[in-house]
Design brief:
Strand content: under 5%
Helix content: 55-70%
Radius of gyration: 25 Å
Number of domains: 2
Largest sheet: 5 strands, mixed
Number of helices: 22
Low-confidence stretches: none
Shape: globular
Order of helices and strands: HHHHHHHHHHHHHHHHHHEHEHEHEEH
Number of strands: 5
Structural class: mainly alpha
Mean pLDDT: 93
């Protein structure tokens, strides 16, 4: 490629990768020490709570716990042990080890550091994966775009296990590729471990078996069944998750209700389904128009002999995840994180296709200007969409939580009604319940001692009128529900519908 001749020199590329990693790390430090009250704070709070409870109660990775006694599954009884079996807590293990061995940062900051490190490392890993199939410049473009895509910047510093899952999925593809290239048993073992970690972090990583199977059979075809390392790879990839699933199924009260994720409301393949996933998420939020154009150019630009169908099957596997988990993907925008690495690969291919057209000088200049404009559009529009994600959605929950942490006993059990959002409960640094209304009398009977509300509604005023108010201001109220005028039963009878 004569336009950028130095991009094929290894030394220059390694310097570029180092700069991408450092810059990727740096931009994700934005709002680094902010409270967990920004976008998707409910899921971040649950994740951070597991790490904090490792510190407070002891390191029990086989029995991760969050802060709420009410079950993750509303159809089940309360969760007296506060189990949180959403994924294997590898993310929390690393955050805990960083906090306990190195300190300096808070538990929340260590969680963000773990995310930032793996998100930045994914950009580098993506480069090394892509160059196995595409020119080096495509790999460099992909690494750069992955590092600085605004959607990825926000979620690449959120306290979530998903960015780590994305890293291990890219790493697994890279290791499988090396295994098929060099046919070494140790590479099969490493590939199996990489894929196992991805599946343990997010079970929907099972869809990655589609492109993985393609890579393996593309290399060996039916001969693969005579290779012992194939069975070793399969065992290492799948057995850890099967063991973990068997373990957590003994405690259904500690697992999220998942039936609704598949197709609640029969949304799959409706107009709203396509509008949300294609127009709103892919076009507006994630690839931000400019990248969306490059994405489709990359798809129609075809594949090289080295690429085969790998990229297309990877993308198809992610789309398969969108189809199966239809309602979940429509509801939560962070579910689309697995799309980002393969998406930026096609964006990089589209970018390369435009600037590599063998036309006369003036047309090449125009092509470069168009490509640069689309990239700038992607970053500018993308930042416009995610800039508010960093904002504190409701400062009152932070103030109320900090006040409760300061004045209430350390072993106090609290009720923090916030639409079953545990981010409010997390701010208090206490255990308790996240559902209020008619449930309050039940929680009081179960041992709850304080009601903390930032919504001074009918329920809050009722308890304020009959119980001891610890503190109150226009933003929140803290009520001692153990010092009342015997109104628990009366409340349950008259306000149970609240």
């Amino acid at each position: 490629m004569k336009v950028i001749p130095y991009l094929n020199k290894p030394f220059v590329i390694y310097i570029a990768l180092l700069l991408i990693f450092i810059s990727s790390f740096a931009v994700r430090l934005y709002h680094f020490n902010g409270p967990i009250a920004d976008w998707m704070s409910w899921r971040q709070a649950d994740t951070a709570a597991v790490t904090r409870n490792f510190v407070k109660e002891g390191f029990t990775p086989m029995y991760p716990k969050f802060d709420a006694f009410n079950s993750l599954n509303p159809k089940l009884l309360p969760d007296p042990h506060r189990y949180f079996f959403a994924e294997f807590p590898l993310y929390n293990i690393l955050s805990y080890e960083g906090f306990t061995h190195f300190g300096h940062f808070t538990i929340e900051e260590w969680g963000r550091l773990v995310t930032i490190f793996f998100a930045s490392l994914t950009a580098v890993a993506l480069y090394f994966l892509v160059i196995q199939y595409s020119p080096r410049r495509v790999g460099l473009f992909a690494a750069f775009i992955y590092a600085f895509l605004p959607y990825n910047i926000y979620y690449g510093r959120a306290i979530l296990p998903d960015p780590m899952y994305v890293f291990f999925s890219v790493l697994a593809f890279f290791l499988v590729t090396l295994w098929t290239r060099y046919d070494k048993v140790w590479l099969a073992i490493l590939a199996g471990i990489g894929l196992a970690l991805a599946i343990l972090l997010k079970p929907y990583a099972l869809v990655l078996l589609v492109p993985v199977t393609y890579l393996i059979f593309w290399k060996w075809k039916k001969k693969i069944f005579s290779k012992p390392e194939f069975y070793l790879f399969a065992i290492l990839s799948l057995v850890p998750y099967l063991l973990w699933k068997t373990h957590i199924d003994q405690h259904p009260e500690g697992q999220f209700a998942t039936a609704w994720l598949y197709n609640e409301g029969h949304i799959r393949f409706t107009g709203a389904y396509f509008r949300w996933l294609i127009y709103d998420r892919m076009n507006r939020l994630i690839f931000a128009t400019g990248g969306f154009v490059l994405f489709w150019i990359g798809i129609i630009g075809g594949s090289t002999k080295r690429e085969g169908l790998f990229y297309y099957l990877w993308l198809l596997a992610i789309f398969g995840f969108f189809v199966v988990i239809a309602k979940g993907n429509v509801t939560h925008d962070y579910y689309q994180m697995p799309l980002v690495p393969i998406g930026v690969i096609f964006i990089a291919k589209g970018l390369d296709y435009i600037i590599s057209q063998n036309t006369h000088f003036y047309q090449r200049v125009i092509n470069i200007l168009v490509a640069v404009s689309l990239v700038m559009m992607m970053f500018a529009f993308g930042w416009f969409e995610v800039r508010d994600y960093f904002n504190i959605n409701n400062p009152a929950i932070v103030e109320a939580g900090q006040t409760a942490d300061r004045i209430l006993p350390k072993n106090a059990i609290v009720i923090t009604p916030y639409q079953n959002d545990s981010s409010f409960l997390y701010q208090t640094n206490r255990y308790g319940y996240t559902v209020g209304g008619g449930k309050i009398p039940w929680w009081v009977k179960q041992g709850a001692q304080y009601l903390i509300s930032v919504n001074l509604d009918t329920a809050s005023h009722y308890w304020m009128a009959h119980c001891k108010v610890v503190t109150k201001n226009p933003q929140f109220v803290i009520i001692n529900v153990t010092q009342c005028q015997g109104i628990v039963e009366a409340y349950a009878a008259t306000l149970s519908g609240i």
